Amino acid sequence: MCVNSLSQGGLNVDLPKARLEPQTSRPESRAFTTRPRRHRKMGNPWSKYSSPKEEIDKGHHEVEILGTGPEGAESAYQWNNCEKNKGHMGFTPVKKFFMRNLPEGFQNWQCHERFKLFANLTVRLRVYATSLARPVEEDNPTSKLRGTAAVRTGSGQITGVYEGKDACPCSTCGGESEEKHWFVYVRTVNHVVYNSEEAAGQRLTCFVTMTTPCRMAL
Predict the structure, then answer these.
(1) pLDDT tens digits, residue range 133-180?
(2) From CA 65, how far away is CA 154, in angstroms rounded?
(3) How far apart are the C-alpha atoms of 127 and 40, rounded to whole Å?
(4) What is the pLDDT of residues 80-107, one digit of tens each?
(5) Is 134 inside any structural domain?
(6) What values do phi and psi take at 203, rounded to 5?
(7) Residue 203's domain spans which residues?
(8) N or C: which end of the chain has fewer CB within 10 A?
């Protein structure tokens, strides 16, 4: 993904410094599973806020489908009608996340800074198209959107930012711009973005956590 500079000073990616110990082995990630989540079996942290019937399935994937309406669909109506956690009980915004919010045994500076670091690397993805090449999967809600322009949002994580050395690759200036540009690499899951066709029709918002002064849409 190419990012052109938005000001004369260029794009500053200000990430907090955290003294993290290197990991000897890469932990297994659960973010890429496409199986339905059965919270009764996996342990639903919100079970005390819901009835036993509601605990069975709170939604398959971490993705919000807004439909084909205007951007105003992201409104109080969508927030209030969220099916995953009625009332958003126990929800803590990142800007109000403190060490005391961590479980006992993890209330230390290193864990707190690590959570803050990952928060600043988190981005919101807004996808405007669903490819017909996406496979049909019964437990994947985005499969039903194949060939449509229904908007959905999900999250991703910045894995690298590299300054471009060649001419600007964007189609607007045709390589004639002398402004600096960067390549931002973002990792997400395939139920949010499946292929390059879907990636081309998306908008990415950085630093929505508001823990840094920089917030921009790409």
Answers:
(1) 998 887 777 888 888 888 888 889 999 988 888 888 777 777 777 778
(2) 9
(3) 31
(4) 777 666 777 777 888 888 999 888 888 9
(5) yes
(6) -130, 135
(7) 56-217
(8) N
**How many folded domains does the chain comprise?**
1
pLDDT over 60 (residue 28): no
Q: Which residues partner with 154 through β-bridges?
A: 125
The full DSSP string for 14-61 is -------PPPSSPPPP-TT--SPP-HHHHT-TTGGGS-TTTTS-S-SS
Structure tokens at 102: 């961590």
Look at the chain and count its residues.
218
Q: How many CB atoms lie within 10 A of CB 110?
A: 11
In a domain, 12, yes or no: no
For tokens 């803590």, name the residue.
92
Is residue 123 included in any domain, yes or no?
yes
Cβ proximity of 197 and 131 under 8 Å: yes
In single-letter form, the type of residue at position 8 comes to Q
- The pairing of beta strand 64-67 with beta strand 181-187: unpaired
DSSP calls for 103-162: PTT--SHHHHHHHHHHHHTEEEEEE----TTS---TT-GGGGGTT---EEEEEEEEEEEE
Taking only the tens place, the pLDDT of each residue in 60-86 is 467 777 766 665 555 566 667 776 667
106 within a domain of the structure (yes/no): yes
